[in-house]
From TrEMBL:
It comes from Oceanibaculum indicum. This is Ribosomal protein S18 acetylase RimI-like enzyme. The keyword Ribosomal protein applies. GO terms for cellular component: ribosome. Keywords: Acyltransferase, Ribonucleoprotein, Ribosomal protein, Transferase. It comes from the Bacteria. InterPro entries: Acyl_CoA_acyltransferase, Diverse_Substrate_AcTransf, GNAT_dom. Residues 5-153 form the N-acetyltransferase domain. GO terms for molecular function: N-acetyltransferase activity. It holds the Pfam family Acetyltransf_1. Gene3D superfamilies: 3.40.630.30.
């Protein structure tokens, strides 16, 4: 069964709903972030940084929050066009498999086409099999390997 979702940008009044989804996302990845980092992210998402944006997916029937998406727009060395990094995508466990994640990605890809972006890209944990099934269908199998060096303690 497909969920009918309404997709919309985050607003300042969404903090409690967003916080619940964000907590679920962090729990999924077994990450605990300090409160100042979470507060700073919220500030950026609601207008404190023009490059960072957030979307909310809600049930068209009940208004219940189904998922969230954060994305970052940035320049690229291979093009004069903007690149979009889909940094965070989370769908509640109850809504998984109902097309919410796909709807969020497709919304972002459509926006990128409309605005002439060069590329949309993202990463996920190699063990996130459920998400990878969707990502392989939406974008095709990944061809790049990601490396990271933590720079803070």
């Amino acid at each position: 069964m497909k969920a009918q979702a309404i997709l919309r940008p985050l607003t300042e009044r969404d903090r409690p709903v967003w916080q619940s989804l964000w907590d679920g996302y962090c729990a999924f990845y077994k990450v605990r972030l300090p409160a100042p980092v979470i507060d700073g992210l919220w500030e950026k998402l609601t207008g404190g940084d023009p490059a960072i944006h957030g979307m909310l997916a809600e049930s068209a029937e009940t208004g219940e929050a189904l998922g969230l998406m954060h994305y970052v727009l940035h320049p690229h060395t291979w093009s004069l066009k903007t690149v979009c990094y889909l940094e965070d995508l989370f769908v509640t466990e109850a809504a998984r498999g109902q097309g919410v994640g796909r709807a969020l990605i497709e919304w972002l890809a459509a926006r990128g086409r409309d605005e002439g972006w060069f590329r949309l890209y993202w990463h996920t944990d190699e063990n996130n099999e459920t998400a990878r099934l969707l990502y392989d269908r939406v974008a095709g199998p990944a061809t790049m390997v990601r490396y990271a060096i933590p720079l803070t303690k």
